[in-house]
# Entry
Amino acid sequence: MPRPVIGLSTYLEPAKWGAWDMPAALLPHWYVDLFHDAGSSVVLLPPSADSDAIDRLDGLVLVGGADVDARLYDQEPHPTADKPRESRDASEVALYRRARELRMPVLGVCRGMQMMAVAHGGALHQDVPEVSTLVHRERPGQFVDHEATIETGTLAAKVFGEGDRVINSSHHQAVSDPGDLVVSGRASDGTVEVLEDPSMDFCMGVQWHPEHPDRREVDRVLVDTFLEASRRYRAQQG
# Structure
């Protein structure tokens, strides 16, 4: 069976290589390794990509990264918020909405899950330490482990099993309002850890990082389930 073709959104950040020092569309290779090793072909979607870019894909992944611009959910940016990545925000919203029109499988990772919530009319806690004493990130670039509880009767429960599981965390912001998505997992402090749309074959976001090498085995079931849905989608397109 042909490999499903999965589109991964990318960052737009300053980068240096060789003699060059300029903005670049880039992505941590962990994501590419994760989805390639799981049996898919990978296409990188730059922050300038418009919604038509995914019409020949079988699945969409919205990846992690900098804070979502608070103006997208009608708030002023918090003093600790990252500088807005306006082109990336606009591109990912357009890609996500087109994927939903096509009923294409979608997986959101960390910021990607937050972007899903915002696209559904939701909002974010802009500074998690202001609303929780549970540590979700000690400093940028570092991961911490804590538990999340998966809700009974959800797609997340079918994927991960019900009850508690240990996840890895590295985020500054979190979902405060999921819009019309369903919350299917929370941390002990109430932080949203999984969102899903039961009306879709597969539309799920997780607040943690399955792309991290230490998570490859324990979170392989999530990636496999997403790719199975992507294969079904491909088959339905003829």
The mean pLDDT is 94. Residues 5-236 form a domain with the Rossmann fold fold (CATH 3.40.50.880). The chain is about 25% helix and 30% strand.
